[in-house]
Write a structure and sequence with these properties.
Number of helices: 3
Strand order of the largest sheet: 1-6-8-7-3-4-2-5
Order of helices and strands: EEHEEEEHEHE
Helix content: 25-40%
Mean pLDDT: 93
Shape: globular
Length: about 150
């Protein structure tokens, strides 16, 4: 599977999310995703993208795109990720190490900034087309997006 970096525009996402602080744990991330999915299912909301973010050191956020209405509640907050220009890379973590992809993307963006192709670099986020623990196709198409300003 080829791995390449590209700039693209992403639409806004209206998502149900949970944020927390603590040590990294794949089990904790999965549990928080399941809590958001259960919340959306209880409200009969259609879901879309699954988004994982690390906004600050040792703080994490999981979000699932929801289509339709629904107020926040039960520890789940409904928020909107604005439409943005992102640097994106899609890869299969079973074939290419995520460390290599993150490192390559970081260097790509550093050089684009040095060449004045972009002005600033924002948040990193991992985006999946579904539950990466249950759907092998969603996991095989892991997408990393970094918000940039041109």
């Amino acid at each position: 599977m080829p791995v390449d970096f590209a700039f693209k525009k992403v639409p806004k996402y209206r998502a149900a999310s949970i944020a927390w602080k603590g040590a990294w744990s794949d089990r904790s991330v999965h549990a928080h995703f399941l809590k958001v999915a259960k919340w959306a299912a209880a409200r009969h909301l259609r879901t879309g993208k699954w988004i994982f973010r690390e906004p600050d050191e040792r703080s994490f956020e999981v979000a699932i795109e929801v289509k339709g209405g629904g107020p926040s509640g039960a520890g789940v907050r409904v928020k909107t990720f604005r439409a943005a220009t992102v640097a994106s890379v899609v890869f299969d973590p079973r074939v290419v190490s995520p460390r290599i992809v993150y490192h390559g993307l970081y260097d790509f963006l550093r050089w684009r900034k040095r060449e004045h192709d972009i002005r600033s670099i924002g948040d990193y986020r991992e985006v999946y087309d579904g539950d990466p623990w249950k759907d092998p196709r969603a996991y095989a198409r892991t997408e990393i997006q970094v918000v940039v300003r041109k």
